[in-house]
């Protein structure tokens, strides 16, 4: 059975058709990146899958628990990091996992801090820990790195790659960053806007993911073409690219 | 090391000028007060001297009247404010969280709020006489609206994104209210309570001026009728102290309860 099965999903806002008859399957342990121009309905799609929004028609089947993180950390400002993470724990087993989850995201030394004393990257790690406490079967990531500066993106991106690989969850990553998609995803889907349709469904070349330059550039070009970006040259300022190039790092532990 | 030395030098030099700018005006006023009254420029029944005010204060204190009057006022403010708080929280929570309740109740309350609250005085006197009930009711009317408005604004302003996170985690109903809505609303509510408490003291003066046999407002009217400005000044002084103390108390609660807030709300 698939971890995520979406069939014939449609959603419209008053006069605007967001997506129509949209279907998608995601395997257990598979990471699918969804790319598309802003306003193409990526986030709405994710919100429909999460049950935060009701689609007009179609079905969403999720095998098990959902975890979700957003562009903003959305931490409860009156709770410490630890209490924010523990908020997601429902039973003794999940409460027992709070400490190891905080350690997994590298926040053990900051667990008693309030969100106002966290950097953007740390806050996003805390949010990630909160969504991982229940050991979700499906992880929905709505541009989780978009609000971070270049260095934090690189750092958290690496941590995210390791965590996703270790957790074996089915994940959908909404992003507008091609390099992020190549570095983190097994599959990259490019959507058209209004209504969102699958323009390209690309299996990411493991060599590209590992940072092999020629393979990486080839995938990059394919994705950028599909996105309608003309200048399809590698971006020398890209940080997420080196994310894949250098896999051995301090977050692997 | 060097830096701490330098900063301590700077602090020593800054301190006197800081003291001057902070306390210069009040000290000058008191000195001017003392000089004008001591030189007989103004008559004692127009402007009692600082020493006369101090004497009146110790006199009232020794006769036990000081405490009796202060306590009477504090009691009225306490009961009126408490009543206003309970009503404002119950009604405000309903209006803030339910569209139906908002449509049904809020316009009426907004209309009542537009009435300057002292306009209710004649009605209150007719309905409730000049006893404690009328005074406490007037204080409650004064304190109610700031708390109510703050609470409704606070509930409407709760970050929907945080509610969404809780809903995603399956947190609903009472637990959602207790773990998300209440803490998120608390900062605004506390600001409303602080304004409400100031209003409570304001309306207490009005209530006690209308006829009271004890209380700080009674000291005011008594001083006026007997042309004793020292008594009036004592009452004014005590109002200032009580108002300041209650505000400091609420601010302390605020710091403890909502120290997590990223922005310090001052109003």
Characterization of this structure:
The complex is a heterodimer of chains A (253) and B (267). Chain A is α/β, with parallel strands linked by helices. In chain A, α6 (150-167) links the parallel β6 (138-142) and β7 (170-174). Chain A is built from 10 helices and 9 strands. Chain A has helices spanning 42-50, 81-86, 92-96, 98-104, 120-132, 150-167, 178-184, 206-209, 213-226, 240-245; strands at residues 4-13, 16-26, 31-35, 57-62, 66-69, 138-142, 170-174, 187-191, 198-203. Mean pLDDT of chain A is 85; it is low at 244-253. Helix content of chain B is 81%, strand content 0%. Chain B has 10 helices and no strands. Chain B has one domain: MetI-like fold, CATH 1.10.3720.10. With 267 residues, chain B is an all-alpha fold. Classes of the chains: A alpha/beta (253), B mainly alpha (267). Chains A and B meet through loops of A and α7 and α8 of B.
**Arithmetic mean of pLDDT of chain B:** 88
What's the overall geometry of chain B?
A: globular
CATH superfamily of chain B: MetI-like
Helicity range of the residues of chain A?
Answer: 25-40%
CATH structural class of chain B = Mainly Alpha
Integer tally of domains of chain B: 1
**Second-tier CATH architecture of chain B:** Orthogonal Bundle
DSSP summary: helix tally of chain A: 10
Briefly characterize the structure:
The complex is a heterodimer of chains A (253) and B (267). Chain A has 253 residues and is α/β, with parallel strands linked by helices.
Feature tags:
heterodimer, A: 253 residues, alpha/beta, six-stranded mixed sheet, three-stranded antiparallel sheet, 10 helices, 9 strands, 23% strand, globular, disordered C terminus, B: 267 residues, mainly alpha, MetI-like fold, 0% strand
């Amino acid at each position: 059975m698939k971890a995520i099965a979406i069939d014939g999903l449609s959603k419209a806002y008053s006069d605007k058709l967001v997506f129509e008859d949209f279907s998608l399957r995601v395997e257990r342990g598979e990471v699918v990146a969804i790319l598309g121009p802003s306003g193409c309905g990526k986030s709405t799609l994710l919100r429909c899958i999460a049950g935060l929004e009701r689609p007009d028609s179609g079905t969403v089947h999720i095998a098990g628990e959902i975890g979700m993180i957003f562009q903003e950390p959305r931490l409860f400002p009156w709770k410490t990091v630890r209490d924010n993470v523990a908020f997601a724990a429902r039973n003794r087993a999940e409460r027992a996992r709070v400490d190891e989850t905080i350690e997994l995201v590298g926040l053990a030394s900051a667990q008693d801090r309030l969100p106002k004393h966290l950097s953007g990257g740390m806050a996003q790690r805390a949010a990630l820990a909160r969504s991982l406490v229940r050991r979700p079967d499906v992880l929905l990531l709505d541009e989780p790195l978009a609000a971070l500066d270049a260095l934090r993106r690189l750092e958290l991106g690496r941590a995210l790659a390791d965590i996703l690989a270790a957790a074996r969850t089915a994940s959908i990553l909404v992003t507008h960053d091609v390099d992020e998609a190549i570095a983190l995803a097994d599959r990259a889907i490019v959507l058209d806007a209004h209504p969102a349709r699958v323009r390209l469904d690309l299996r990411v070349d493991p060599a590209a993911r590992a940072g092999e330059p020629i393979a990486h550039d080839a995938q990059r070009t394919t994705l950028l073409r599909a996105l309608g970006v003309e200048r399809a040259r590698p971006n020398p300022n890209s940080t997420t690219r080196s994310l894949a190039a250098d896999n051995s790092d301090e977050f692997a532990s | 090391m060097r830096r701490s030395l330098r900063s301590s030098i700077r602090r020593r030099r800054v301190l006197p000028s800081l003291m001057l700018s902070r306390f210069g005006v009040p000290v000058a006023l008191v000195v001017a007060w003392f000089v004008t009254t001591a030189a007989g420029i103004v008559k004692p029944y127009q402007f009692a001297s600082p020493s006369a005010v101090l004497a009146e204060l110790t006199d009232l204190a020794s006769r036990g009247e000081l405490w009796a009057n202060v306590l009477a006022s504090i009691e009225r403010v306490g009961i009126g404010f408490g009543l206003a708080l309970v009503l404002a929280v119950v009604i405000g929570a309903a209006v803030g969280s339910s569209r139906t309740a908002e449509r049904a109740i809020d316009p009426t309350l907004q209309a009542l709020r537009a009435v300057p609250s002292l306009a209710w005085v004649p009605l209150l006197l007719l309905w409730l006489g000049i006893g404690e009930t009328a005074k406490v009711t007037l204080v409650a009317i004064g304190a109610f609206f700031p708390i109510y408005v703050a609470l409704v604004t606070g509930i409407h302003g709760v970050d929907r994104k945080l509610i969404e996170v809780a809903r995603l985690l399956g947190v609903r109903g009472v637990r959602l209210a207790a773990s998300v809505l209440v803490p998120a609303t608390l900062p605004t509510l506390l600001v409303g309570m602080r304004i409400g408490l100031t209003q409570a003291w304001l309306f207490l003066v009005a209530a006690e001026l209308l006829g009271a046999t004890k209380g700080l407002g009674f000291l005011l009217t008594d001083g006026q009728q007997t042309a004793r400005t020292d008594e009036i000044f004592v009452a004014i002084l005590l109002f200032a102290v009580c108002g300041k103390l209650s505000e400091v108390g609420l601010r302390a609660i605020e710091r403890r309860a909502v120290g997590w807030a990223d922005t310090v709300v001052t109003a």
